[in-house]
């Protein structure tokens, strides 16, 4: 992954020696908000913001989906990094499907962080929401960027993916999904002791079973309304069979082996705003061929499989109809 220390880039992975082999991530440091009225210092106007993302990264993928769901493609420009996380971290070096940094003209993403704060120290991650007007990073916290996109912009459509009457339920399922599933796959994949790995994998699959059961009588995670909870789960599920089963040893089951999750995943994949934001070449390259994974996959070999047809019929309509809609 690497980090900035004293204004210089250090190619360094995560240290689990003091945590019993357990992977513990770091907190995002840029946590400002975009608001419609600009009371936060960042007014949600069209053309003002630029989004740095990686197709490989599930956290960045959330923001790309929300940008599409809210019809903000013409309002928020983007740059897509090279999926190979190598000795200089995320780069804008040429790779099929990647794009240059058209705003700050940098070669490495860490240079964007230093432009925002020359004294910044810490991890350099995606997504990054950049303000072209004040030349700084608004946020590098994906869970908050998608909330901004949902209600903080004076452009896009009026669809609400975090409705007031469902917030408590959405927050409850988000807490489970984040800790045990989104973050859970990383706890398993980056664990360096058998005990830490088994603890993470058991928690992960217990949570997947709970979510699978929840989807028995509801089309989506919170009733029959598509919400940010579905966006947050989707980005882990779509990577599960192609990356986490193999590279992260999350192999008690594939998503394809569950009762409801396979059709739910295909339902989302076929929903406008989801499938077209998925790039499996970037996902596989990002997980199997980068410096952060050298201790997991030292050869850097990218598997050819699995072959999963996410375009085949999902039959989730029956759940929707059974609920009386």
UniProtKB/TrEMBL annotation:
Classification via SUPFAM superfamilies: GST C-terminal domain-like, Thioredoxin-like
Cellular component terms per the entry's GO annotation: cytoplasm
InterPro entries: Glutathione-S-Trfase_C-like, Glutathione-S-Trfase_C_sf, Glutathione_S-Trfase, Glutathione_S-Trfase_N, GST_Omega-like_C, GST_Omega/GSH, Thioredoxin-like_sf
Pfam families: GST_C_2 (PF13410), GST_N_2 (PF13409)
GO MF annotation, one: glutathione transferase activity
Limits of the GST C-terminal domain: 163-287
Site (Lowers pKa of active site Cys): 244, 287
Binding site for glutathione: 90, 123-126, 141-142
Active-site residues per Swiss-Prot or TrEMBL entry: 57, 186
Annotated protein name in UniProt: GST C-terminal domain-containing protein
Species in which this protein is naturally found: Blepharisma stoltei
């Amino acid at each position: 992954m690497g980090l900035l220390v004293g204004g210089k880039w250090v190619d360094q992975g995560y240290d689990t020696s003091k945590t019993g082999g357990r992977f513990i991530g770091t907190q995002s440091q840029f946590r400002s908000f975009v608001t419609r009225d600009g009371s936060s210092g960042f007014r949600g106007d069209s053309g003002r913001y630029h989004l740095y993302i990686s197709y490989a990264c599930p956290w960045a993928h959330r923001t790309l989906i929300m940008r599409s769901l809210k019809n903000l493609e013409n309002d928020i420009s983007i740059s897509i990094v090279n999926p190979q996380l190598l000795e200089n971290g995320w780069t804008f070096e040429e790779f099929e499907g990647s794009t240059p940094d058209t705003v700050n003209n940098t070669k490495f993403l860490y240079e964007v962080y230093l432009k925002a704060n020359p004294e910044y120290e810490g991890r350099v991650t995606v997504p990054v929401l950049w303000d072209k007007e004040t030349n700084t990073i608004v946020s590098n916290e994906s869970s908050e960027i998608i909330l901004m996109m949902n209600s903080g912009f004076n452009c896009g459509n009026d669809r609400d993916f975090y409705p007031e009457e469902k917030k408590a339920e959405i927050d409850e399922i988000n807490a489970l999904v984040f800790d045990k599933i989104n973050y859970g796959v990383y706890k398993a994949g980056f664990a360096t002791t058998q005990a830490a790995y088994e603890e993470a994998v058991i928690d992960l699959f217990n949570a997947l079973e709970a979510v699978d059961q929840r989807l028995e009588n509801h089309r989506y995670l919170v009733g029959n309304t598509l919400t940010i909870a579905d966006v947050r789960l989707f980005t882990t599920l779509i990577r599960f069979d192609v990356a986490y089963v193999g590279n992260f040893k999350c192999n008690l089951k594939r998503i394809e082996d569950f009762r409801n999750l396979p059709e739910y995943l295909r339902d989302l994949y076929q929903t406008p705003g989801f499938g077209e934001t998925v790039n499996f070449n970037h996902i596989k390259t990002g997980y199997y061929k980068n410096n952060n994974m050298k201790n997991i996959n030292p050869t850097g070999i990218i598997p050819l499989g699995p072959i999963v047809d996410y375009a085949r019929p999902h039959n989730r309509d029956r759940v929707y109809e059974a609920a009386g809609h």
